[in-house]
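note to self: dont lose this again. the chain is below, predicted strucutre after it. 119 aa total, dont forget to put it in the shared folder this time
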Amino acid sequence: MLQDEAQTIENHLDFIDTRADFEPVVEETARLRILEQHSYAEIATLTRAKAASTAMRRSDKVAQRAVDAGFRTPPLPELEEIADGRNAATLDPQYTLVGGTLNFAPPAGGDGQFVSSAA
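---
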């Protein structure tokens, strides 16, 4: 197990760079996941993988090797770092969560009536 001070993103990226058995696309997948926190679907698109599951398997391959090399878990950026430049999720104004139940506010001009198309 690596010491706490060695459990850094830089050391993890150095570990990835020094592995001769990782294909370049596997390294790229790991970097996109670690540094930019892309979803597997986004990584699949960026790396031209056939599916998100391919990106996940590539990322998992690197993560497992890192754990085997002594990383507790591959380090991830601080939340502030990944939040920079991204918009926070906002709740759709027509929905509000009150006391554990979801209340629906009809769009302006609507009468609030639900119409079922079922016969």
